[in-house]
Design brief:
With 214 residues, the protein is mainly beta. It is built from one helix and 14 strands; from the N terminus they run αββββββββββββββ. It has two domains: 32 residues, no CATH class; 172 residues, Jelly Rolls (Sandwich), CATH 2.60.120.
């Protein structure tokens, strides 16, 4: 039986090596859950929350509203049919094998609307990454920063540069769902002038009474 060739005989040795390297990169990226595009254009145009809230109006953490039903796409959670207000999230640093999702009372079939504010203390480019399992859609200041809509294992977004021109409070808006099994939702950032990636800390997150139950 004649053996199949990975490359045609007319392809040069250099081209063969380049193609092999491309195949290896794609395989490694797939196994690691890394999207094919490793770089995103900077997100611009994020709008300040208006009017900026007074300290007395701010509540700690992010407001979260749950719904319990089977979903297979993030568009399925645009409207929650049976909303249940949950305990606010101190931050977004969730990963579990079979435990309860975020602050919900269940471990599967969970949808969440996460609403609140995030404070940027200086102008510059803030680089975010989001881990999800399953679907997620996220916006800051009215600009979509990431969407990974369908059922998938734990995987991280590529780096997401967000350009902030004016310091202050911006809306943080996330829709998320988990079908069954493992779950994850994490939000990390690298702030201007730093090379350290950390979870977005609780002290720059808050919500307003008007955002509860959205």
């Amino acid at each position: 039986m004649r053996k199949r060739q990975l490359f045609p005989a007319t392809v040069s040795g250099r081209d063969q090596r380049l193609r092999l390297l491309q195949i290896v990169v794609l395989i490694v990226g797939y196994l690691a859950g890394i999207p094919a595009s490793l770089a995103l254009d900077p997100v611009v145009g994020a709008a300040l929350w208006s009017p900026q809230p007074a300290v007395s109006e701010l509540r700690p953490g992010l407001a979260v509203t749950y719904d319990y039903a089977r979903r297979v796409h993030v568009d399925d959670v645009e409207v929650l049919s049976n909303p249940v207000i949950g305990k606010p999230l101190d931050n977004i640093a969730h990963r579990t094998i079979d435990g309860k999702v975020l602050t919900a009372k269940r471990a599967m079939m969970v949808a969440a609307h996460i609403r609140g504010l995030i404070r940027f203390e200086a102008p510059g480019t803030y680089t975010f990454r989001i881990e999800s399992n399953d679907g997620v859609k996220a916006r800051i200041g009215g600009q979509q920063i990431w969407v990974d809509p369908e059922i998938h294992p734990n995987r991280w977004s590529p780096p997401i540069p967000l350009v902030i021109d004016t310091p202050g409070w911006y809306e943080l808006w996330i829709n998320y769902y988990q079908k069954k099994g493992t779950s994850a939702l994490q939000l990390v950032w690298t702030i201007p002038g730093s090379e350290s990636e950390t979870h977005v800390p609780p002290e720059v997150l808050a919500h307003l009474d008007s955002q509860v139950g959205q």
